Amino acid sequence: MIKGVIFDHDGTLVDSERKHYGLWVDLLAEFGVEFPEEEYKAHLAGVPTHFNAEYLVQRYNLPISAETLFNKRENATRASLGLTACPLIPGARECVEWVVARGLQTAIATGASLAEVKPTLEQHELGRYFAIVASRDQVARAKPAPDVYQYALDQLGLNADECIAIEDSATGLTSALACGLECIVVENDYSKGHDFTGAAAVFEDMSAAQRWLDTRIL
């Protein structure tokens, strides 16, 4: 019996990938690198920041370490995503409210920091629906490791077979599956066409995902 739904944050609840891409564009411009959006979509969308940094340092032979680039990106993130919430994904609020109205428990499991999630909870007034937020701050390993999902399950007091995860990326899907969760994917402009092998279902929008949930939780 399904008792809970665990939502990813970036790309699932909020349309943040454009912002993430833009932050990398600005940082790489400091090194004279023009960073194509298609490359971001193909290799970095939905992937934790430290993996992004490692990829970019090697790909463009940057004269700094991946750790230094990661720290520069973290500073830029705090100055941007940590202050102003990104727009909600169409249908995300409605889906969350629908889940709550049916008496299911909810949590967020994200590769982002708590500071990045806070504006979403406060400025979009979603905090009332998410008492539990599992972020990279609480775990040793970020996605695609299962740690954030396991932390969310522990806080919910539920088993993996009692929850469904909603993701937008292959990295997030791998994390949820590694935790033993059933996972559906809602594609966005940055994850469309990625390999979602193992997903219970893949949808083009959140409304379609909600209709699927309606059949699954009965």
TrEMBL record:
It comes from the Bacteria. Keywords: Carbohydrate metabolism, Magnesium, Metal-binding. The keyword Iron does not apply. InterPro entries: Beta-PGM-like, HAD-like_sf, HAD-SF_hydro_IA, HAD_sf, PGP-like_dom2. Its cofactor is Mg(2+). Belongs to the HAD-like hydrolase superfamily. CbbY/CbbZ/Gph/YieH family. PANTHER family: 6-PHOSPHOGLUCONATE PHOSPHATASE, HEXITOL PHOSPHATASE B. This is HAD family phosphatase.
